[in-house]
Structures are given as structure tokens and as C-alpha cells.
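Quick question: what would this complex look like in 3D?
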Amino acid sequence: MHIDLLIHHFSNYLSLDEKEITALSLCVNEKRVKRKQFILQEGTICNHYNFIAKGCVKMYKIDKNGKEHNLQFAIENSWITDIGSFHSEIPSELYIEAIENSVILQIEKPDLLNLYTNFPKFDRNFRVIIEDAFIALQIRVLHNISSTAEEKYLAFIATYPDLFQRISNVQIASYLGVTPEFLSTVRKKISKS
Amino acid sequence: MHIDLLIHHFSNYLSLDEKEITALSLCVNEKRVKRKQFILQEGTICNHYNFIAKGCVKMYKIDKNGKEHNLQFAIENSWITDIGSFHSEIPSELYIEAIENSVILQIEKPDLLNLYTNFPKFDRNFRVIIEDAFIALQIRVLHNISSTAEEKYLAFIATYPDLFQRISNVQIASYLGVTPEFLSTVRKKISKS
DNA sequence: CGAAAATTTGACATGACTCAACTGGAGTGG
DNA sequence: CCACTCCAGTTGAGTCATGTCAAATTTTCG
């Protein structure tokens, strides 16, 4: 079962004991989605945390010109959620869409709050998980405000060599904040040097 | 005393009880810095969390061309720390420098870890604090990858009207990732419309 | 196989940077 | 209190990075 992946994921932090595993298992829902299906759509409230057990998904915004801007990718053993919408319970401006056929483990908000209250270890573990995500986002912001497209692209493939092989350059361009056409010329220049 | 500000800050989350307040008080160090003094410098390990009780500071990186890139500002009642360096205990690539004469409340890493272990409420509170910071960073990334300089500037002054009045446009330009000259032309264009 | 999407290429447009010069406070020392 | 310096802010000319649009080609996937 896929929940073993989640339990193993937590063993990277403070491992769960029997009672915690039982409680967690009771509130995890497994959801299978095919490529191009949505886990979240703009206008709806994001009321669950999503853990990717298998596959690959993206979270993005569509701007006023209809263009997609990728905020985050997630593959096996990582979390992807519109935490802003989850917290405030206001409608999301984001989409979460499967790039590959995927298996998602979802925890509903009331269940997660219960886990936090009954088992402080979840507060601890999610604190550390989000700290790590925060650190990665800070590095991304630094690149955004200080690097050229070429530098950002090279940093991306160095940081996420696994992702890089699974997603198209259109997706990477959207994540970096450049057009696919320009990324193409950047890649050409890199390959020549 | 300034520690009251910190205790009050936590009351925005789960309020601290007597024992927690006592424990916290024992590990908070008050530090006064003047304008242009450093709280952290590149090459040193960031081994404390910094809470701004009074004043205003910035955290930035200096790139290979000697240019500053502002990652974060902090004013009263907010946290500013190189969490990456704090976690991994590798030397920081960032500077934290006072923009105004300031009062900082510092918690050393071993003390913070003790607070986490002895009082789970700190895990909870810092989880929520960092979640909020994470949400703000995600919004910033979305602007970085999808907006023009003008849109980013307008979003900045709408989001941080308080900060906007206390710091120079040079600092804002560095935060947005544009040159001060170009920000100047953007501001001129805005004032005309 | 066939449709849809990804990738590349080129001509052109524009947003943003560089560099240099100038102006006008704000702080500092005599 | 003045003279001085330093820095923020502005302006303009020229340049570079990146975007737009359109078209052709290749790849992917159902």
C-alpha cells in the first residue's frame, strides 16, 4: 500500500510510533489521477494536504493573458498544496494538475488539525518539512532577482536533475519565468559552449 | 522590557503559559545595533533566530559583481534569520544589516532546540509562523516569474505600505530585482498616470 | 496512424540595464 | 552655523536581454 511511502517519508524526521501510524492511516485518502487531471482548480478552496506517492504534478497560476506560470513541481515523496488557501479558507488562485498518471495521498484539513492536536510530533515534523521548503524557496527568489535566464536554467537542472528529465522545457520555462522560445535559444547557446 | 513584545507576538498564535514564558525569557538575548551594523555576515554560521523588537533590518546577498540583492526586510515584531545556514550549520552567504538603529532579540540554536523539545507549543507556533512566511514567499515568486517591474513595484507598496515609507527606493529596487535607475523611470511613469 | 504538443528558428519589438552626469537633501566635522 | 561629503534620486543615450509573433519540424501520446 502507498501509505507505507508516507510513513517512510516521516521517518526522515521523527519516526512515527504505532499510535501515530494508526491515527494517520485513518485519515489518509488515496486518489489516483491521470495525466492532465486536476487535484485543485482556481476558485475552489484547497482543503487538503497532498502527498505524491507516485507520479508528477505541477501547481500553477493562469494570468490575465491566459498564460500559465508554474509555482511548483512535485514528484514522489513530496508535498504540494496551496497552503494560503488551506489556511485562510479562501478560494485558491492556483491549479494543481497531474503531469503524469499519479497516486496522491490526501489528508483533509479537520483530520490534519486533529493530528496536530493529538500528536505533537506532527507539529514538529511539518515544521521541519516546511522549513526545508522555505529554504528552497528563498534560494529560488535569490536566483529570480539576481540571475540571467541562462544561470537560472543551469541552476535548475543542477538542483533538480531528476525532474529535469521528466518534464518538458515548456514547463521549465514557465517555472523560470521565461518564454519557451527564449529558453530554446539559451539551451542552444549552452550546447555550443 | 523588550521581551514583552516577543511574548505578545506569540499570543497571536497559541499564547504562552507561565512556564513557557519563564523558559523563553531565560534564553533570549537582547542586542542593540546601530544603522549599518551587521547581525550576520557572509562566511559565518547563523546560529540564532532574530526577532526584531525595534528598528528595521535587511538580509541580502552580494553577487560576484559586488551588487547587493535584498532577500528580506524585517521590522518590529517579525523574524529574520538565514534558516538554511541555521539548519545545516554551514557558513551563510548572506548578510543581515541594520537599516535603522535597532533592538534585536536573539535565541541561540541549542536554546531553541531545548524549547522545541520541552514545550511542544513552540513547534506549533513556529510551524504556523513559518507557514505564513512561506505563503508570502510563494506570492513573491509568482510575481517574480509573471509580472513586469511596474506590477511588482505596485504590489510591493500595496503589500508593505509601512515598509515602503521607511526604506529607500534603492533598497526596494534591490528587493524587486531591478536597477534603481529603472525603478525611477517606473515611478515617474506611475505618477503621470 | 493521426492529432496535439514540444521544439526550433528568424525577424522584429520592447523592457530593462549600463554608464555617466547632474541635482538635492541629510549627516558630519570644524 | 557653514562647508563639505555622501548618498538617494533623476535623466538621457546607447545597448543588451528577453518577449512577440509566425512558421516549419519533430516528438509524444492516445
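Answer marked as accepted. The radius of gyration of chain A is 18 Å.
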